[in-house]
Design goal:
Strand content: under 5%
Number of helices: 13
Order of helices and strands: HHHHHHHHHHHHHEE
Distance between the termini: 65 Å
CATH architecture of one domain: Alpha Horseshoe
CATH topology of one domain: Leucine-rich Repeat Variant
CATH superfamily of one domain: Leucine-rich Repeat Variant
Radius of gyration: 32 Å
Helix content: 55-70%
């Protein structure tokens, strides 16, 4: 299905949305500076910092790096640096000019990154390996102590305690480190999606704005203030099933600037499901600056609700499954074989229904 052009709808005249503060430049400078020299994107990213546009062949490389999965159970060098390369690649895709085909591929890769969760299974296994190593080291020292002090039970118990404690500590650290790295990449992905406003990117940001992680959620909400005006009435009926309910949830949890843009967006793409949440908000916003927008949006949602309910209220022909082909009426001049379901039925009367003479 081809997406409509993202043009500003003439239905509402809004003041320009607030510009969000991108992730501090010092962070991206640090990430680029810590990339290994053999990294394929290091020179291109450093060029972007000083305004040099990377070559055309860099775009597929940025996207390919962003789509890589952390591999293996061991913390090898490639695994350690992958998250930095992905963060730089996500940032770079929001800084370069892309063709429509490249934009679709970049948005798809960024959205997948935004919805990706770290592998807890790998974290568990890595933590197990770390704890075994710690246990073996302790066992060596414990064995030496046992030989000299002849405290075999104590040495065995100490080894077991260290193995268990080491597994718990390493599990916490392994999981937390991977989650933190993932959040850094996702923050850059959210900011770049705000610079590539398509229907998919906007819907992904709406869903991310309801995440539990405060850092990522805050970035998504600030980005939405800027990109929600890109939605137009042409998108009505083309949204994913959960997009309108998610917008309604933002009415109750977003800040004033975001709630304003969400209301305007619901006036363009909202369906009947948004009527009750907007009516509930209207009761809470008496005398609020949002009141005028609510009064404009409510009639639109009421009309859409009425149109959506209309098909369920239409009269339908009664079904007579016992009508046979012999009782169907056919045209006098039959030019062909008519379909039975297109013919009229004769009135079927019984003795009790016949009029009395």
């Amino acid at each position: 299905m081809e997406e409509p052009d993202a043009m500003q709808s003439p239905e509402y005249k809004t003041e320009p949305p607030e510009e969000i503060a991108d992730i501090p430049g010092t962070e991206i400078h640090d990430l680029i500076g810590r990339l290994p020299k053999e990294s394929p994107i290091r020179e291109w990213a450093m060029g972007l910092l000083i305004g040099i546009t990377p070559p055309e062949e860099s775009i597929p490389v940025f996207i390919e790096i962003l789509e890589r999965q952390p591999g293996g159970l061991w913390w090898n060098l490639s695994t350690l640096r992958l998250w930095r390369e992905q963060a730089v690649a996500a940032w770079a895709l929001g800084q370069v000019s892309l063709t429509p085909e490249q934009t679709d591929a970049a948005v798809t890769a960024l959205v997948r990154m935004l919805w990706r969760t770290p592998s807890d299974k790998n974290s568990l296994l890595r933590a197990g390996l770390v704890s075994v190593v710690l246990g073996l080291i302790t066992a060596v020292f414990g064995g030496l102590i046992a030989v000299f002090a002849r405290f075999f039970p104590t040495a065995a118990f100490m080894t077991l305690v260290v193995i268990v404690c080491g597994w718990v500590v390493s599990l916490t650290q392994c999981t937390q480190v991977e989650h933190n790295h993932q959040r850094v990449v996702q923050r850059f992905a959210a900011i770049s999606l705000g610079k590539l406003p398509t229907l998919l990117s906007i819907e992904a940001l709406i869903a991310t704005a309801l995440e539990t992680g405060l850092g990522l959620r805050g970035v998504a909400r600030e980005t939405l203030v800027r990109v929600l005006p890109e939605l137009t009435s042409a998108y009505y009926g083309h949204l994913r099933p959960l997009t309108v309910p998610n917008l309604c949830r933002l009415l109750q949890s977003g800040g004033p600037a975001l709630v304003k843009q969400v209301l305007i967006a619901l006036g363009k793409v909202g369906d009947g499901r948004a009527l009750r949440p907007v009516e509930a908000l209207a009761k809470q916003q008496n005398g609020s600056p949002l009141r005028n927008i609510i009064e404009e949006v409510l009639p639109i949602l009421q009309e859409r609700k009425r149109m959506e309910d209309a098909p369920r209220n239409l009269l339908r022909a009664s079904d007579q499954p016992f009508a046979t082909l012999e009782v169907l009426l056919r045209p006098a001049m039959d030019t062909g074989e008519a379909q039975p379901e297109q013919l009229l039925r004769t009135a079927i009367t019984t003795d009790s229904d016949a009029p009395s003479r």
